[in-house]
Design goal:
Belongs to the class I-like SAM-binding methyltransferase superfamily. RNA methyltransferase RlmE family. RlmM subfamily. Its EC number is 2.1.1.186. Pfam families: FtsJ (PF01728), RlmM_FDX (PF18125), RLMM_N (PF21239). This protein has 11 helices and 14 strands. It is α/β, with parallel strands linked by helices. It has 2 domains: 188 residues, 2-Layer Sandwich (THUMP fold); 165 residues, Vaccinia Virus protein VP39 (Rossmann fold), CATH 3.40.50. The strands form 2 sheets. It has a 7-stranded mixed β-sheet with strand order 2-3-1-4-7-6-5. The protein has a 7-stranded mixed β-sheet with strand order 10-9-8-11-12-14-13, sandwiched between helices. Helix 10 packs parallel to helix 11. 46% of the residues are buried.
Length: 373
């Protein structure tokens, strides 16, 4: 079976959007490929003739609907529950203990695996209702596979985050994928999901969306440079104050725009000015460092309004959500982002992702091209 390709995870129900995105982006790079998936499976397999070229042409940071991007090594079906390890060693090593002889690597376009090719083992399953019962298997199997890989010389004796990760993804008890995660070109979290805790004083669960956006869409250097105490921000559609609360935790001064009320303890920070106004009409008298927006409105209208903020110079950086329609969600995403970029009037670095804490929406970070790290 051809395993020259990628394994990507996504939010269950958004497999068609991820498949369409991968197909279109690969074609734009002159590469053929086809997606294989099932609705609500939480993953997409994207196959082509040149797995290495597909991997290079589709950087993880540019993929909107992918929570994780991995390069396929092998797909194993009909695994015997009594011995799942031997077929995996066979696929990785050619025969146990000889990782320098790897027919699976050749089939997938990967180079022959050297000894200790992987620094970490991740055994996981897609984030779907059908796959959740596999969580126990993933935990126990990882404990059994890890020492076997180390004996075979495939995995380092101690975890090494600088080396590629070996991912084992179970989609059923007898069906698994083996794949490689490049630390520079993939999500660092199992299943591609950052585990964030909702603090007791968060005004709403929407606070987790902005916290995840700051973690995923900005680099560590950008978080340090672009989120400094005393910076000024506007939160459009702020009530009940989840996103405003996140910004105040960064010690930003926030103008919260909403006709609805904010939670009292958010106002008690002394960093918030609440204006009862329409987020689609209000703008600041002087340029702000940040604008954030989580208003429920048609994505095309939000994209146009966000572009106006940059065109008029009302903010330097922005994070906003685009609520997606029920159908043609990839097409609407692409059109809205293209419209936003064209109408902004200044060169921008734009990063967009459907985050774990998003639902029927994507989150966008935009900053002037010169400020991105």
């Amino acid at each position: 079976m051809n395993t020259a390709g990628l394994l990507c995870y996504c939010r269950a129900g958004f497999e068609p959007e991820l498949a369409a995105e991968l197909t279109e982006r690969a074609a734009a790079q002159g590469l053929g490929g086809y997606a294989r998936t099932e609705r609500d499976s939480g993953h997409v397999v994207f196959l082509g003739d040149d797995g290495q070229a597909l991997d290079a042409a589709l950087p993880f940071s540019t993929l909107i609907f992918a929570r994780q991007k991995l390069r396929l090594i092998a797909e194993l079906r009909g695994l015997d529950p009594k011995d799942r390890i031997a077929p995996m060693l066979q696929a990785l090593c050619g025969r146990a203990g000889r990782p320098d002889e790897s027919p699976a690597a050749s089939d997938s376009g990967l180079p022959a695996l050297p000894r200790a090719a992987f620094g970490t083992l991740v055994v996981e399953h897609p984030d779907s209702d059908a796959a959740k019962p596999l969580a126990g298997l993933a935990r126990s199997f990882g404990n059994a596979l890890r020492p076997a890989l180390r004996r075979a010389g495939v995995l380092t004796a101690q975890d090494n985050a600088r080396l590629p990760r070996l991912h084992v993804c179970f989609v059923d008890g007898d069906h698994a994928f083996l794949a490689v995660g490049d630390p520079r070109d993939s999500a660092p979290w199992p299943m591609g999901i950052p585990r964030l805790k909702l603090l007791a004083d968060a005004p709403s669960r929407s606070a987790l969306k902005l916290e995840e956006a700051l973690l995923v869409l900005l680099t560590a250097d950008e978080r340090e440079r672009l989120l400094r105490p005393g910076m000024r921000a506007a939160d459009l559609g702020a009530a009940p104050g989840g996103w405003t609360w996140v910004l105040t935790r960064q010690k930003l001064q926030v103008t919260a725009i909403d006709n609805g009320p904010l939670r009292e303890h958010v106002m008690d920070t002394g960093l918030v000015q609440h204006l009862r106004a329409d987020g689609f009409a209000w703008h600041p008298a002087k340029p702000l460092d940040w604008m954030v927006c989580d208003m429920v409105e048609q994505p095309s209208r939000v994209a146009a309004r966000m572009a106006e903020w940059f065109r008029e110079g009302w903010c330097r950086h922005a994070i906003f959500n685009l609520k997606l329609p029920m159908k043609k969600r990839w097409q609407e995403t692409r059109l809205c982002l293209e419209r936003f970029e064209a109408q902004a009037g200044v060169p921008l670095t734009i990063r967009a992702k459907q985050l774990y804490h998003d639902r029927e929406e994507i989150t966008v970070f935009a900053t002037p091209l010169r400020t991105a790290s």
